[in-house]
Amino acid sequence: MTIMHRIVLLSLALPISNLFAQGLLTPPGAPGATMKTLTQVEPRTPISSLPFTISASGSYYLTGNLTSTNHGVIIEASGVSLDLMGFTLSGDREQMEFGIFLDGATNGLIRNVMVHNGIVRDFGYGLVIWGGNNNRFENLVSSCNAFGGAVLFGADSGQCNANTIQNCTFADNGLNSTNGSAGITLTTLTKGECSGNTIDHCTVGGNGEQGIVFSGNFSGTCNGNRISDCTIGNHATMEIMLSGTEGECSGNTVAGCTIRQGGTGGIYLQDVSGNRIDGNHIVGSSTNSMVGIHCEGSTNNVVVRNSCFGQQYGLVVNTTDMLGPIVSETGILSTTNGAAGLSPWANFVK
Questions:
Q1: CB neighbour list of residue 26: distance below 8 Å, 6 or more residues apart
Q2: 130, 100 contact by CB (below 8 A)
Q3: Second label for 204, Cα 20 to 30 Å away, from 182, 197, 324, 336?
Q4: How far, in Å, CA of 273 to CA of 266, rounded?
Q5: What is the DSSP letter of 107?
Q6: Is the pLDDT of residue 110 over 80?
Q7: Under 8 Å CB-to-CB from 341, ≥6 apart: which residues?
Q8: pLDDT tens string 333-346
Q9: Structural contact between residues 179 and 207, judged by C-beta atoms closer than 8 angstroms
Q10: Residue 17 has what pLDDT?
Q11: Please, is 51 exposed, middle or buried when counting C-beta atoms within 10 Å of its C-beta (0-12, 13-18, 19+)?
Q12: Is 182 helix (H, G, I), strand (E, B) or coil?
């Protein structure tokens, strides 16, 4: 008898119950839910009217386009995520009304806040940090605010340090203001500190007086900040201004920016020291474009690898600053410009 015959006979000899021992197949009841709701995955609080004050950490989001006759969203707690969901916050253009307001003056320093993904317009100032460290603004548009697009204050011996503004647009702010309005301002009040902040891959254009301002005011320090890979242009006076006239503004970096100069200065350094201006491209766009890079009353700044075209004066620096060789001739650099043209630190002026 073959093995196959033995298997067949054995199967026929087994009881029917052994062949179907898996039991009943009918489920005991309806199947339970296996999916979690969005609220269970990420508990979030909706914001459906303004002004709205966030006083506890957590995740918040807008439910639609919202309008306010006061502040927009006031954040008085650390550890907050605010998603504008692509919607718009709108104000009524009063000077001391802020679209997004991190109010560190009320409950101490605000830390670890993320605000992203939407539009803030028609307030006095669009985005304001008044005493806060390690916060982040991302993928926002701040436009048509009466006095400025964004302000970071190191106020009254306080701090506004290590904050990041990235992939944001600041346009048409402060057009009706004559009070030194700007797209983005980093500044200090009495002995305050506004240091180690980053402005990266932003577009800043068509604001009132200046594009971006770093200012150490009232014995404060505005040190070690960075502007990188931004597109800036069409401002009445300075596109980028660093000032230490009333305090200290040192160790900052402006690198890799494209500047379409519409006013009197591309990058202006006033009474500052130890800053690095590296690899920027500055193009004059009107007859008022006086100076590409101007260091006035400043010392020990590094100015290298920049290109300045279309200004009356490309580079105006002090003898105490460090300046890469200036190339102003046309032609193939390796043959017509000698050592200056071959230098990796050369500045190009035409």
A1: none
A2: no
A3: 324
A4: 18
A5: H
A6: yes
A7: 327, 329, 333, 334
A8: 776 666 676 789 99
A9: no
A10: 45
A11: middle
A12: strand
What distance in Å separates the CA atoms of residue 203 and residue 143, rounded to the nearest whole number?
Answer: 11
Q: Which residues contact 212 (CB under 8 A, 6 or more apart)?
A: 182, 183, 184, 185, 199, 204, 227, 230, 232, 239, 240, 241
- How does strand 169-171 pair with strand 164-166? unpaired
d(CA 243, CA 222): 9
Rounded-to-integer distance, Cα 271 and Cα 243, Å:
6
Better-predicted residue by pLDDT, 199 or 29: 199
pLDDT of residue 26: 63
The tens digit of pLDDT for each residue in 1-23 reads 554 454 344 344 444 444 444 55
| Tokens linked to 63 | 């439910």
What secondary structure does DSSP assign to 116-158, as a single string? EEEEEESSSEEEEEESEES-EEEEEEEES-SSEEEEEEE-TT-
d(Cα 145, Cα 147) in Å, to the nearest integer?
Answer: 6
* Cβ-defined contacts of 275-278 (< 8 Å, 24+): 275/242, 275/249, 275/250, 275/251, 275/301, 275/302, 276/252, 276/301, 276/302, 276/304, 277/301, 277/302, 277/303, 277/304, 277/306, 278/253, 278/254, 278/302, 278/303, 278/304, 278/305, 278/306
The amino acid at 256: G
3-state secondary structure of 338: helix
Closest to 282 (Cα-Cα) out of 348, 329, 340, 337: 348
CA distance 79 to 61: 14
> Position of tokens 């983005």?
184
The position carrying tokens 């010392």 is 299
Would you give the end-to-end CA distance of the chain in angstroms? 103
Dist CA 99 CA 66 (whole Å):
11
